[in-house]
Amino acid sequence: MNNSWNKFIYKIGSPIYDKFFNSGIFLNARKQIFQSIPFNNQQRILFVGVGTGADLELINHNDLNISAIDYSPDMLEKARKKFEHSTITFLEMDAQKMEFENESFDFIVASLILSVVPDATKCFQEMKRVLKPKGRIIVFDKFVPKNKKLSLPIILLRPIISLLGTDIGRSFEEILPENIVVEEDTPIMLNGMYRKIIIRKIN
Fold first, then answer.
1. Which of 110, 109, 113, 127 is nearest to 167 (CA)?
2. Phi and psi (nearest 5°) for 178?
3. For residue 78, which of 18, 52, 149, 172 is within the disulfide window of CB 3.0 to 4.6 Å?
4. So what's the pLDDT on residue 197?
5. Residue 75: which of 97, 48, 96, 102 has the closest Cα?
6. pLDDT tens per residue, range 24-36
7. Rounded to an integer, what distance in angstroms lies between the CA atom of residue 65 and that of residue 84?
8. What's residue 18's pLDDT?
9. CA 96 to chain centre
């Protein structure tokens, strides 16, 4: 995967993205992610890889200070149209090289982005960099089960699926930066392939 290819894939996929990833089991999973997150209007919140804004539809965004980035202009345009009367700041930006100051955000939401960016380790390091010392990163994504090797079907399918702009063989534990604490790691769907993970910095 690379950024140019992903931009092309998500240009094609943007018209139908919500039909697959903002409905059914994915919608139910997203609801589980956000039902207990204590957002408030004193915080700065960043959505990394916001896509069409599916996550934003599940929170009371009106009184929140939200920035939302995505590398795909087509996905971002879908999100902008949904929230054209909101105060959300939408920015076209590479999650692997963010244009924010260090320690800028109280919450960072990373839904289905760490399995999509070409370099998940670099993306994770960037999220850590822009996170405030007492902040939290909320991850919803698919990862290989802990302490398990890739199965043969996954090994065979991985290069094919990557052509669709996502990696089904990434290990969360291998991309986790140093000086980070996992506060929650909950299986959400598809037998734990998709997980809700909340992490914080070690001060």
1. 113
2. -75, 160
3. 52
4. 96
5. 48
6. 999 999 988 888 8
7. 15
8. 86
9. 12
How many Cα neighbours within 13 Å face the side chain of 161?
13
Please report the sign of the dihedral spanned by the C-alpha atoms of residue 99, residue 102, residue 104, residue 110.
positive
Give the distance from CA 35 to its chain's centroid. Answer: 17
pTM over 0.85: yes
Backbone phi, psi, residue 133, to 5°: -55, -35
Q: Band of the pLDDT at 9, cuts 50, 70, 90? A: confident
CB 95 within 8 A of CB 120: no
Place of tokens 């290990």: 171
Q: Rounded distance, CA 27 to CA 186, Å?
A: 17
Read off the tokens for 109.
Answer: 């939401």
- DSSP assignments along 159-175, one per residue: HHHHTTT--S---HHHH
Reported in sequence order, the residue ranges of 28-121 that DSSP labels E, i.e. its strands, are: 44-48, 65-70, 89-92, 105-111
Q: What is residue 146's DSSP assignment?
A: T
Edge to edge, the sheet with strand 105-111 lists: 89-92, 65-70, 44-48, 105-111, 131-142, 194-201, 180-189
